[in-house]
Amino acid sequence: MLLLQLVSLALVALASQANSLKLKKDVPVFVKTLKELYRGPPQRTVARADTAEEKWITQPLDHFDESNTKTYEMRYFLNDEFQTDGSPIFIFLGGEWEASPGMIQQGHWYDMAKEHNGVLIYTEHRYYGESVPTETMSLENLQYLHVKQALADVARFIETFKSENAQLTNSKVLLAGGSYSATMVVWFKRLYPDLVVGGWASSAPLLAKVDFYEYKEVTGRAFLELGGQKCYDRIQNGIAELEYMFDNKRAAEARAMLRICSSFDHENDLDMWNLFGSISNIFASVAQTQSPGDIEYYCDFLLSFDDNATAIANFAYWAWNYPSCIDARYQETVEYYLWGIDNFDSSRPWFYQTCNEYGWYQSSRSNNQPFGNKFPATFNIELCKDVFSSKFGNEQIESNIAQTNEDFGGLEPNVENVYMTHGELDPWSAMGQGVAEGATVITKASHCTDFGSISSSDSSEMRASKERIAELVREWLA
Description:
Helices cover about 45% and strands about 10% of the residues. It is an alpha/beta fold. It folds into 2 domains: about 50-205 and about 410-475, Rossmann fold; about 210-405, no CATH class. Helix 4 (about 145-165) crosses helix 5 and helix 7 (about 230-245) crosses helix 11. GO terms for molecular function: dipeptidyl-peptidase activity; serine-type exopeptidase activity.
C-alpha cells in the first residue's frame, strides 16, 4: 500500500511538473521577449507592507458617451502615512502592467512626498492588472481601451478622491510615470492642465511611429559603448551567420544550434521574422533594463564561445529559458494573442494599443544596428491583421498613428511644468524629447532607471537630475 501511495504521489508530482512546463511553453518566444520590453518600472521590494492599501473606485466604461451607463472598478494603491490637512497628492500612473505598491513605499517619488507630507497613490491603467472592465478582450470590448479613456480615468479619479477627502479638497496634485505612463503624464498635462501643478515623466516616448527602427540602433549603441567593439562584432557576425545558414541550405544545422522545434518553417517569411525578431529582443531587453556592469557581463558570456553563431545560439537558448525545443512559429504567436480574448493577459491589450494608437514596431530596417535584417515592421502589421482584424493594415495603422500625433502634438506637446528625463542609452529615448527641447538626458543610463532614492551609487548626472526634480516639486508646491 505504501509503495502504491509513493508511486501515486510521484505520478502527481510529474503531472504537476509537466503542466507547469506546458504553461511555460504556451507563451511563444516572441510574446515572451516582448513581455520583457513592455513591463513597468523596476519593481521595488518593500518590507513594510502595511504602508499601502489596495482600494477601488467606480469609473465609467466610456467617458465620452453619456448614453453608455456601464461602469467598472479601477484599482489603486494608497499610502497616507504622511497625510495631514492640505497634503499635496503624489500620483504615480500605472501603464501597460499590473500595478504594485512598491513605487509609493520607497524611492525618490516617495522621498519627495515624505518631505512635503504628501499622500501617495498608484493608479492602475484600465485593462491591466485587476482593472479589467469587460468580460472578455474581444475586439468589440477593446474599443474602450484608449489612452484618452485612461487619461479621463485619472482626471475623474483626482476629482473624486479630493471631493471624498475633506483634508484634501484644496490639495495640489503632482503626477509621475515611467515609459508609457510617463507619456501619459505629459499628455494629461496637455488635456487637463488645471488638475495638476506639475509632473515627472521618466523615459516618455512622445512620437507615435510605425517603423521604429531607431530602437535597435540605440540598442546596438549600448552594446558598443558599454561592451566594446568585439562584443558588437560578435553579435553582428553571429546573427549574420545564422541568417546565412537559413538562406543557404543549412537550415537544419541552424535549427539544431538554436534548439528550434521541427515544426518551424524557414521558408515562411513570417516564421523567420518571428524568430529573428525574438533574438533581437533578447539584446533589447538587456539594453533597456541594464544597470552598471550588466552589458559587460553578457558580453563576456558571448565572447567566451569559439565562434559567432554558437555564441548567439547559446545566448538565445539561455535567455529564452524553455525546458525543451523552442517553438518559434508565427502561428503560435497569433494563437497566443487570440487565446488572450478569454484568458486575460497584458500582452493582448498592449498589442492592441500599438495597432490602434502607437505603432512603435522595433524593426530591422536600419543598417546601423547589429541584429540583421529579418524582422521588418511588416511583421507586426501582419500580426495586427491576424490577431484583431484585416482593417489593421498599413494604411489604417498609419492613419491611427497620425491621429495620435495630431491629438497630442508628437515631439511638441506644448505643456508646462513637466520634467522629462531619459537615459542616454535607453532605446525609447529616440521617440522622446532631447536636450535641445529641454529634457534631461542622463549619461549611460537606460529606461526608467532614475526612480530610486538619491544614493551614493548615483552618477553625478543621475544625482543632479534627481535633485532637479526635487527643486521643481518645491517650486510647484510653494
